[in-house]
Write a structure and sequence with these properties.
The chain is built from 8 helices and 6 strands. With 186 residues, the chain is mainly α. Strands 1-2 form a two-stranded antiparallel ribbon. A two-stranded antiparallel sheet has the order 3-4. The chain has a two-stranded antiparallel sheet with strand order 5-6.
Length: 186
């Protein structure tokens, strides 16, 4: 279904995007701008405890600022995205065919690489929870998310599991999808 040429998102998708917007809008300004994404990059890189000269740190920063550049297409003259404009931008860039792979996979890959302490391509419970807590998900929400996503019971989440979870969080309208817990309760 479309409205004014834009696909209408479900109530579940809107609730998840509202939750994500609230996590991103650290200062409670009611809008996002490039500084919010720069701060997000700083928080995520800091949570990974990466040295300033570690190339993985720069990959996180570059991927998140690149994400902002993609989403900023709907920014106003002051370079700001309201909640509605940000949701429309996510919808247009991520929900389109190959959008998730083009827009979100580079970000997720850089974050996984930054937090994967032993380089095995998986995040253990502590690494995963550190990612979520770096983006303002509380410890209880981070623990619940890990428990819901560790469907193999291995105590680790593979890159593939994390990508599926991120895709579910962003595009699934099934309220029971495990990926909906990726950023804690919404």
């Amino acid at each position: 279904m479309t409205a004014n040429g834009v696909d209408v998102i479900s109530a579940v998708q809107r609730a998840k995007l509202d939750h994500r917007f609230s996590l991103l809008d650290v200062a409670g300004k009611g809008y996002l701008d490039r500084t919010d994404y720069a701060e997000l990059a700083r928080q995520i890189a800091g949570g990974a405890q990466l040295r300033f000269d570690d190339p993985r740190r720069q990959e996180i920063v570059d991927s998140l600022l690149g994400l902002w550049d993609i989403l900023a297409v709907h920014a106003d003259a002051d370079g700001r995205l309201s909640r509605e404009a940000w949701q429309a931008s996510v919808q247009e860039s991520v929900f389109e065919p190959d959008g998730f792979e083009r827009v979100m996979e580079p970000v997720a890959a850089s974050v996984i690489a930054g937090y994967d302490g032993d380089g095995d391509g998986e995040l253990d419970r502590a690494e995963f929870e550190a990612v979520l807590m770096s983006i303002r998900v509380d410890a209880e929400g981070a623990a619940a998310a890990f428990a819901r996503l560790d469907t193999r019971g291995s105590g680790k989440l593979s890159r593939e599991q994390l990508m599926v979870a991120l895709r579910e969080f962003l595009v699934s309208d099934d309220p029971d999808s495990p990926g909906n817990m990726l950023l804690g309760s919404f």
